[in-house]
Design a protein that fits this description.
By secondary structure, this protein is an all-alpha fold. Helices cover 95% and strands 0% of the residues.
Length: 133
Amino acid sequence: MMKDVRQWNVKLLPRPRLQTALLTSKRMQQLNAEKVADQLEQLRSAVRQAVLSSWALDGAFDRVSELSLSEQNKCRSATLTTKGIWLSAFGQIGTGAVATAFVAFLILVMADLTQTLLDTATNTGTMARKGQD
């Protein structure tokens, strides 16, 4: 009989605050889980609509195509600019080499001409003295 009274007393006593807090947090978690599940379902349906909608696919494809074409044009332009820079540099190097070779040739010709004139003057003076003697 004593056990029965204790059981009744336990059942009639108010619940501790901790237990009520745990129960309310579990309910909130369930509510939060339900909210997340609802949001997930909404996102899934939005994804299905976007995938199944041909208008959305066509718009996305058009945007991607335009972006791809503009990037290809930029790449082509950059490649041509790079080639132009290299050709210009090689052209200037080639022009410099030709100009340097021409100046070197002129120096050699002038040196040879000067040497010929000096030799002629030296030999002419020597022969003139021999003829006067």
